[in-house]
From TrEMBL:
<dbReference type="GO" id="GO:1990380">
    <property type="term" value="F:K48-linked deubiquitinase activity"/>
</dbReference>
<feature type="domain" description="Deubiquitinating enzyme MINDY-3/4 conserved">
    <location>
        <begin position="72"/>
        <end position="427"/>
    </location>
</feature>
<dbReference type="Pfam" id="PF13898">
    <property type="entry name" value="MINDY-3_4_CD"/>
</dbReference>
<dbReference type="GO" id="GO:0004843">
    <property type="term" value="F:cysteine-type deubiquitinase activity"/>
</dbReference>
<comment type="similarity">
    <text>Belongs to the MINDY deubiquitinase family. FAM188 subfamily.</text>
</comment>
<protein>
    <recommendedName>
        <fullName>Deubiquitinating enzyme MINDY-3/4 conserved domain-containing protein</fullName>
    </recommendedName>
</protein>
<dbReference type="GO" id="GO:0071108">
    <property type="term" value="P:protein K48-linked deubiquitination"/>
</dbReference>
<dbReference type="InterPro" id="IPR039785">
    <property type="entry name" value="MINY3/4"/>
</dbReference>
<dbReference type="InterPro" id="IPR025257">
    <property type="entry name" value="MINDY-3/4_CD"/>
</dbReference>
Amino acid sequence: MSDRRLDYIELLWQEVSRNPHRLLDVEKEEEQEEAPPPRRTLQALCSIPRRLAISAGLGGTPVTPQLIESLRRILLGGNFRVFDYEWRKAVFHFREPNSEFAYALKADGGGARAIQMVVQARIIKHLLFTQQSTSDGQTLHSLTEVGRREQDRALAAALSDSLWLAGQEASATVTLVTEDYCITSHLDNKLDTFTERLQLFTFSEKDAITNFILDHIQCFQEEGSHGVILFLYSLICSRTIERLRQDLDSPTSYLLHLSPGSSACRQALLNLLLTGRASPHLFNGMRHFGQDGLPLQRPLQGVLSRSDVGYLRWSREEMERGALPQVGSMLKTPRFPVWVCSINSSCSVLFSATRSLLSDWRAEHLFQLYYYCGQSSQTATARLTVDTHSHHWEASSRDGGDPEKRFPSLEMTIRTKWDGAVIAWNGTSPFY
């Protein structure tokens, strides 16, 4: 060993002898460097406020990686796709209680609006015909006298209606987010810090579902809860992945249509919300033959029974192309006079306070319909007078000009149910 090496060692020992505490500090630093990084807390990981997350002690079944994969594939078509910002912020939030729109949900835009409007239709059905007397004595005024607690009960009833139908009226599942359970990301899927924390609660009685949702209504209503996505997950788990795959035709393998900047609901998802089955078709019953008259390799499943809430559809673009699909009577004539309207690919709600409108042909001569589009720009519920026995509507239309102003899309949608009807707006500017 060289003299220079010995000099270095001697100097090092001298330094240690003078400052023995420095050696202890170095050992501590090495221990800290070798220790694993501290685990991130769930609060840092997740965007949902802690008050909206349930305790794992509540029970239920934790979500599995396999179910997460199935949920993403059936909804979005792949493991690496997650909901965008518009979907994540969507909730079921009412407008002011005891006001003009006490019955109404806020639904200004985004792909989740269609789901909010179906739930809105079920809320109106509950407030007018289930909670109240089933006679024709109810008016629009009764919808303005809805308090905060009544809003909560109506929303719980509306959500449980769709879940119970999806579970074939035998069982249903509600998904909530737990505060301290998390599945780590795998290489074959994308972590969204929300789906990985789902807890599933399954019930075999409808009242039990409604009460459970009511007890946790804030998880679907409050800002930051991802309430619409939670309900959508509940709907799929109630229907089950296996039954959904049987419902869907092979060309329709997932429920959301992905487009730049948004994800819109396919017809199959709307039908699942309305009827409990994810058929992508609007006609009644089954079709065994194609348009060419030849037998189909696989029969097409339409709507098999009348729904509680109806559906009307009209699109100017589809009409001009001659591609407007015909809605069958099972959806056009529901059990209650409430319709979800898809008008130029935007959903809204049309309803009557007269239940006999669907059972007494005389009530269809002259009647009132009410319309809510879901947007905050609407300042009053539109009241329309529909006359099916006056002169034909085309005779009173102005010649020339903008076809949308001559034939407002809402009027054209109503005429898919009441052909040739004359519609008065009663002082409201027409919804174009």
